[in-house]
């Protein structure tokens, strides 16, 4: 069965606008007793057509696979195989991340014996009330499709279902096929047709003429329309269509975390980031807009400022999405359609239309003012410890339009969303649906594997680096060069700031306010060198810029560490975020924060 599975994966191809490539770039594997004998033998036999890579951590290798899929706009994917027990459950966090981000990855964890003869086998979880349960049932809520393979012939139906899930734009996400370890090694007379080369095409719903016409009527009736570009614009390869639409019609556009890079940052009508981590330009437009058109966004709380941002009393909301659940959120008028097809049809339906001159001019002025504020922040001189933005400014100067920035959690995603100047699709790679600490380095490896000709800058806080850094060694071993900049604020600075904003004193987030006998002085550069990377600690802007230039010129992975202030540039942009504050406290600061919180939640618009 394992041989048949590997052979099947190697014969799946995708037609991406005429470019036909293998759909699976390869398999990440950490072997154990639940997969080494059968899956290991099968992958060895197919290594010339289906590469296998060794990682150091199961979650990290899955994060690399997911980042690879994201960088490929869901057109290619990877598989991950583990043993049973902790090897399998280490994948669950990654599965949740892929599920939240709607990204394809195939999980192949080993499972218990289907015949139950050796029960309980090593690492087996025994449910006292259900003999069919194993640890792999943890994957059920975080998989788009789940199956347990207890007989070898079951893959004949399970694998095509997995592929159909990956190809469906509305259902795309992680698939788990839990492989009973005895079934992995059993033989079956598979039909030859099962192994024929198959070329798939990604499926996305067409935009109907009636939907485009109805939306065009709403646009014509609106005085201040606004587009919000989400990840669906990028996944649907609709960036060019969006740019043409915005320029021809004159409607301003803001970008979510997932949608950033859909428009060039210099586009006159690109208002920048929106929401909690948004620009002053985008958030002002969102508050004044009487027609908000979400394109490929699920409108999570950071985008809507916890449903407080779209405050115009007559505001209408339209959601264009391939997923019916996302399209119907916030009591929106849903349009079930692919972003590129809808924008193309809407442009035709708006023939002769142009946005109100005053609204267009105001949007351009606001966008210009924001770009000037970003430039000033990125070039602001200062002394160490530097601000996040000052360090990002140095990286911006070292990067070019083909570079990719990778991040996931902490203060940095907010600073990047506001201040990173994205020039082209895939250049801004921030995982902010699940915001998983530890994604950054593994994700940077996956991005580099997907985009080998582009320079990859991984920006990561010291807390996130400490959670998962093992795939730096993997990147070195594989010759996949990444540049990692570690922002060191000696703890979990982002959550410390959030804690203090809710009225509590600093507690258990920074090294200095935790219960430790000795405050650690972690030498990140020495640690990185021990894993084979070049590394340097810098304490001046000149040294940082020199280190970045050297890193770009090098063929090896490089880690650069620099001390950073704890607080981001909250004075520029941003909006409220709903973080519940205790209703009762003995701390005056908490009670004051609660009063402010109650005032803020009164402005929320909970309408669906």
Mind sketching the topology for me?
Elements: H1 2-10, E1 12-16, E2 19-22, E3 24-29, H2 39-45, E4 52-54, H3 58-71, E5 77-82, H4 86-89, H5 92-101, E6 105-111, E7 145-149, H6 155-167, E8 174-180, H7 181-184, E9 198-200, H8 209-221, E10 225-229, H9 231-235, H10 239-249, E11 253-255, E12 270-273, H11 280-288, E13 291-295, H12 301-304, E14 316-321, H13 324-327, E15 333-336, H14 339-349, H15 357-379, H16 388-398, E16 404-407, H17 412-419, E17 428-430, H18 439-450, E18 456-461, H19 462-467, H20 471-478, E19 483-488, H21 493-501, H22 524-530, E20 534-538, H23 541-553, E21 558-563, H24 588-601
Parallel strand pairs: 1-9, 3-4, 3-5, 5-6, 6-8, 7-8, 10-11, 10-13, 11-12, 13-14, 14-15, 16-17, 16-18, 18-19, 19-21, 20-21
Antiparallel strand pairs: 1-2
In the sheet with the most strands, the strands line up as: 4-3-5-6-8-7
Major sheet details = 6 strands, parallel
Q: In one word, what is the shape?
A: globular
Architecture (CATH level 2) name of the largest domain: 3-Layer(aba) Sandwich
What is the number of E strands? 21
């Amino acid at each position: 069965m394992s041989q048949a599975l590997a052979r099947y994966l190697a014969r799946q191809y995708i037609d991406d606008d005429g470019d036909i490539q293998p759909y699976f770039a390869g398999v990440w594997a950490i072997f154990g007793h639940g997969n080494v004998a059968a899956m290991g033998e099968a992958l060895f036999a197919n290594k010339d057509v289906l590469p296998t890579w060794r990682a150091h951590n199961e979650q990290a290798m899955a994060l690399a696979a997911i980042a690879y899929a994201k960088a490929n706009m869901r057109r290619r994917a990877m598989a991950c195989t583990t043993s049973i027990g902790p090897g399998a459950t280490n994948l669950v966090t990654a599965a949740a991340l892929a599920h939240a981000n709607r990204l394809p990855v195939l999980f192949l964890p080993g499972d218990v014996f289907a015949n139950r003869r050796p029960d309980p086998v090593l690492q087996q979880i025994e449910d006292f009330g259900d003999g069919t349960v194993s640890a792999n049932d943890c994957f059920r809520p975080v998989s788009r499709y789940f199956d347990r393979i207890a007989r070898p012939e079951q893959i004949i139906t399970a694998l095509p279902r997995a592929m159909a899930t990956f190809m469906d734009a509305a259902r795309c996400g992680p698939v788990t096929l839990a492989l009973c370890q005895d079934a992995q090694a059993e033989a079956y007379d598979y039909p030859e047709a099962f192994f024929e080369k198959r070329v798939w095409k990604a499926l996305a719903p067409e935009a109907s003429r009636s939907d485009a016409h109805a939306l065009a009527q709403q646009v014509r009736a609106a005085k201040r329309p606004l587009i919000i570009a989400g990840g669906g614009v990028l996944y649907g390869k609709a960036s060019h269509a969006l740019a043409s639409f915005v320029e021809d019609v004159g409607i301003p556009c803001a970008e979510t975390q997932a949608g950033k890079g859909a428009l060039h940052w210099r586009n006159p009508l690109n208002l920048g980031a929106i929401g909690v981590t948004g620009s002053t330009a985008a958030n002002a437009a969102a508050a004044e807009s009487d027609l908000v058109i979400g394109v490929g966004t699920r409108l999570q709380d950071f985008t809507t400022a916890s449903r407080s941002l779209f405050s115009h009393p007559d505001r209408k909301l339209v959601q264009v999405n391939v997923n019916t659940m996302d399209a119907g959120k916030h009591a929106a008028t849903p349009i079930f359609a692919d972003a590129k097809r809808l924008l193309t049809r809407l442009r035709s339906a708006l023939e002769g239309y142009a946005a109100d001159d005053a609204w267009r001019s105001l949007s351009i002025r606001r966008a210009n003012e924001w770009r000037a504020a970003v430039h000033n922040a990125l070039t602001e001189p200062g002394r160490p410890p530097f601000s996040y933005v000052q360090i990002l400014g140095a990286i911006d100067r070292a990067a070019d339009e083909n570079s990719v920035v990778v991040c996931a959690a902490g203060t940095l995603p907010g600073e990047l969303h506001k201040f990173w100047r994205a020039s082209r699709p895939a250049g801004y790679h921030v995982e902010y649906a699940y915001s998983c600490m530890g994604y950054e380095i593994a994700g940077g490896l996956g991005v580099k594997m997907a985009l080998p000709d582009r320079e990859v800058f991984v920006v990561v806080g010291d807390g996130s680096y400490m959670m998962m850094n093992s795939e730096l060694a993997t990147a070195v071993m594989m010759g996949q060069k990444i540049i990692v900049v570690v922002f060191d604020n000696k703890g979990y600075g982002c959550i410390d700031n959030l804690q203090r904003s809710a009225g509590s004193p600093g507690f258990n987030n920074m090294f200095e306010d935790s219960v430790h006998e000795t405050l650690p002085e972690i030498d990140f550069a020495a640690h990185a060198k021990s894993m084979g990377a070049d590394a340097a600690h810098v304490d001046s802007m000149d040294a940082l810029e020199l280190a970045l230039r050297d890193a770009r010129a090098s063929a090896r992975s490089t880690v650069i560490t620099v001390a950073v202030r704890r607080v981001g540039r909250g004075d520029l942009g941003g909006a409220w975020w709903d973080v519940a504050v205790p209703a009762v406290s003995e701390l005056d600061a908490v009670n004051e924060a609660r009063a402010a919180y109650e005032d803020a939640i009164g402005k929320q618009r909970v309408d669906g």
